[in-house]
Amino acid sequence: LALFTYVKKPEKHKIMEWSAAQYEELQLHAIATLSSVAPFLTEEYMLCQGNARVLAFLEWCESEDSFFSHGNSFHGTGGRANKFAQMRYSLRLLRA
How far is CA 44 from the centre of its chain? Predict the structure, then answer.
């Protein structure tokens, strides 16, 4: 459940402890970890409504909301100022 706290669109009105680059890094690591762990924890994944959360996140990824990714991390390869890394890892999670 803790990993799913990062599988959502960034909220601007909340006071965040992380910079945008740090939050993006945490977000991508959480999705990558979920795609590795979810096949072994299927029951817990379903209890947390994992697919619904990931589909809502994927919907945000394809929206026109402004998002300025930094693309500096290992997981963030694919360019700056886009959501390609988030989309790629969300699709991996759904396949897993």
Answer: 18
